Amino acid sequence: MRKNYLLTPGPTPLPPKVCQAMAQPIIHHRTPQFQAILKETTEGLKYVFCTKCDVFILASSGTGAMEAAVVNLLSMQDTALTVQGGKFGERWTQICKSYGINTEIIDVVWGQAVNPKDIEKKLKENPKIKAVFATLCETSTGVVCDIEAIGRVVKNSDAVLVVDAISGLGAIPLLTDDWSVDMVVCGSQKGLMLPPGLAFISVSAKAWSKVKEAKSPRYYFDLIAAKSALDQTDTPFTPAISLVIALKEALKMMKQDGLENIFARHKKMADATRSAMQALGLELFAPTAGSDVVTAVKVPQGIDGEKLVKTMRDVYGVTIAGGQSELKGKVFRIAHMGYIEESDIILGIACLEKVLAQMGYKFNLGTGVAAAEEVFLK
Amino acid sequence: MRKNYLLTPGPTPLPPKVCQAMAQPIIHHRTPQFQAILKETTEGLKYVFCTKCDVFILASSGTGAMEAAVVNLLSMQDTALTVQGGKFGERWTQICKSYGINTEIIDVVWGQAVNPKDIEKKLKENPKIKAVFATLCETSTGVVCDIEAIGRVVKNSDAVLVVDAISGLGAIPLLTDDWSVDMVVCGSQKGLMLPPGLAFISVSAKAWSKVKEAKSPRYYFDLIAAKSALDQTDTPFTPAISLVIALKEALKMMKQDGLENIFARHKKMADATRSAMQALGLELFAPTAGSDVVTAVKVPQGIDGEKLVKTMRDVYGVTIAGGQSELKGKVFRIAHMGYIEESDIILGIACLEKVLAQMGYKFNLGTGVAAAEEVFLK
Known about the structure:
Two copies of one chain form a homodimer. By secondary structure, chain A is α/β, with parallel strands linked by helices. Chain A contains 13 helices and 14 strands. Chain A has helices at residues 16-22, 32-49, 62-73, 87-98, 116-125, 147-155, 205-211, 223-230, 241-257, 259-279, 305-316, 342-358, 367-377, and strands spanning 5-6, 55-59, 79-84, 102-107, 129-135, 137-138, 143-144, 160-164, 183-187, 198-203, 294-298, 318-319, 321-322, 331-335. A seven-stranded mixed sheet of chain A has the order 2-10-9-8-5-3-4, sandwiched between helices. A three-stranded antiparallel sheet of chain A has the order 11-14-13, covered by helices on one side. Chain A has a two-stranded parallel sheet with strand order 1-12. Chain A is globular, with a radius of gyration of 21 Å. At the A-B interface, α1, α3, α4 and α9 of A face α1, α3, α4 and α9 of B.
């Protein structure tokens, strides 16, 4: 018998109701039946995005929506500012460069959050900057950014603020309208408790004014076509029907729980995880800017980080994530996002303890679990 | 009690095994477990595509793969030839134009197939043409093209042949390698018996030589990145995991049936449908070039075509398709593609008979069904 547990920052586990929704016979997308679902999910997304603006559902992974943001806002030779503090911040830069956008870059030390003042400074130095691309939670490092403060800074410029919230939306606060975020990009397989395959993007009035002028070539990700279709409760191309039906179920669950409660649950799980790691004598990779979405932990000296992750998965069925890019083998990452609750965190920590002990790391068995329990009992 | 029957040219009904595969708990994509599935599905797609070349799985609808073909083959100001005989042929032109490609167009009367000699002539007249974009089965008209003959023509030029086989692949013959088709584009929700959300694209050696030179901006649909990833049994971005797992089941079924048997089943269902329509005194929209994938039928005078489709769906639960674009209200379309067999066709025809009779169309009840039965008994 082998049961599997997923504590990775995407995909995250699926609620049974979501699984069941996908197992239903398929329906046609150009029917009143599907239109009702499209309407309900589009409204539900507005709740989760904390926006009154349109949110579009794309059939792609999150990166597709990132590309949609770039090509719909900018034209070749335009200038953008990207914030890079990990693999996904770098992706903004890569997409911009692919489309011939001049890219100013703020390089942030991996494990730290960008200082909003640095963005303010760049915007003042270069009034040509039309868009600022930031990341809510940098999945590769576990760092969360102060999007609210960045929003205050960008709001006073002509630039729009685009936030990759692929990791984080629906798990930690992101008040799109209140924080003046012009485009929020998200994927389905994280806080929204779905399989990957859908992406979402919200568009503010300020962003629309740029979309109308943007000349980057685009077809599949053209938001003007998406808007015309959505105004008729339709999509420009065949939507990923079964995933949209699953989205309906997930959004219903999220509305029932309430965003405030969801955020509180994530915060508690993150606190418990961080506390457990410290109790085990492990060092957090982002001690001051750790997100409530995923916790990156430094692999202790003498331990093979890749083997640790592999053993947890292959021997005990508990899948956590290793490090990506320059952090490969140097950190492991425990996600506490989506359809995850206290018991999942406890079993993940216990499994980590067992494997660390087997690998010769010195600590008292149960210390991590005890620290987590203490947080949960508060 | 209302049971629903889908006879639309995408989405097509899902086999229970496919539904069940999607209801399983999700697994992480960067694991040996998913890598094995990616390997098996990539191999299975080669069987269905009748190719030894790489076939890539994209997280998008079919149009995404059409865009991938255009942007990976061509640069701005390059010249392409598109064949337009319906809504989906026009889409090739639209995508090319979106990317600044000079587009020569062969306009074919809707309901007829392109004459391969017209393509040969265009290629001789304009040696700048780098790519020919055609459609295997034009879903909007039901017309099938002679891709084999087009392949013979394009093969002798410097141009590559790209075929939109979104409708048709896995239902009617398309011998990618033998017919010298350089790129074949497909979607998941047609002959492959899956929900929409995946797209596929094959790339020949001749196509790769163009991909290496193409300068159209691209990121999400970049096939060079897809190739680097696939060589390590990986995808450049998070794949639509649950759909890929479902694909594994569908491909297993197709391999068990065998392509020849699948093609024969589709041909018989199409013959039965055409025969039934004619027995009912209805006129086929594409009498000489009708595909074995979907049959378009002219709405008889005095009958409201949109009401016909709506009544079949809302009163009897049988969903067929109406006309698209300029054919709206003028044709209805019965699909016989994917997880569909004789009994589905019979019930569809019977439902059509009932609604036509209610709407005042004069014919002898049962005539259509009898004609279909006759074909099936042959």
